[in-house]
Amino acid sequence: MITVSTSSETDRAYHHGDLRSALIEAGLTALETADPNELSLRQLAREVGVSATAVYRHFPDKHALLRALAETGLAKLFEQQSLAAAAAGGGSPGFAATGRAYVRFAVAHPGLFRLIFSHAELAGGAELGNNPAGRLLRANSEAMSGGDAAAAREMQVRAWAIAHGLAMLILDGHLPADDALIDATMPARDPCEI
Fold first, then answer.
1. Is the pTM of this model over 0.90?
2. pLDDT, tens digit, for every residue of 136-164?
3. Between the CA of residue 7 and those of 4, 19, 159, what are the distances in Å?
4. Which residues fall under the DNA-binding region feature (predicted)?
């Protein structure tokens, strides 16, 4: 006896739900223990229970998946930084809080952090690019510099270099992942005094 499926592609997509989001979540989970270079579209397809060809409808290649993971990671970083700044009350304390949130994000999500920042094109180009986290850094620098474009640029580079440098020193095992160290490195004061 031969059976013929009467379900359409739409039915299968509905049955599974949002496949693109499921693949991104599976990729984020994989990055918790795997290097970004080890990610496999076929493996992610198996993990979410779909065929490999279904994956290629959403991500034509691995680079497209990595870009989506990086964009998701940058959105999560922005969210954590925004919450930290608001909790600190904005201004200098809020700006410093965004730096501490940046380092804590790196420590909590090392695979994702390395993915985002090991390929500048995934982060939207140089200087964090045109993404929420990059725009937040630029806006904070501009606000803290009083409208002086040169001072804002210097502050942006200095703040990012300190936060990113500390994050990488911790991730590479040169410094411990210690909250007191993170707080002491980025105290709540004018970033130009650092």
1. no
2. 888 888 888 888 889 988 998 899 899 99
3. 9, 17, 55
4. 40-59
